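Fig. S4 source data, part A: sequence.
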Amino acid sequence: MLGRCLVAITLVLFMTVGSAAEAAKWSRQYIRQLPDSAFAAIETTPDGKTLRHLPHHDAAGNLDLPHLRSALSRLDQVKWQDPAHAEAARRHLLEHRRQHRQERRNPPPKAAR
């Protein structure tokens, strides 16, 4: 019984520490400086304001997995100007996830030194 409790506690601590370290928080300033290509959807309001939704690429253009997961989980929280953009963003994010999973299953061969 004690062994099971220790295993459970260890798993909870590992998951908490691992996820906190993995998902670095992006500041508002950092997000403002990201290019439009870092977002799943860009919309324009009737008064011309640009709305950029669901960032998931970093400033260098690399896919950021914790932010991809976050974007997928927040899709239904976005206030869309056009509901069609929600579906396009969903497809975009799911394609990133599919590609990532495929790359994990079939990693590219390591270059010879």
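Fig. S4 source data, part B ends here. The mean pLDDT is 84.
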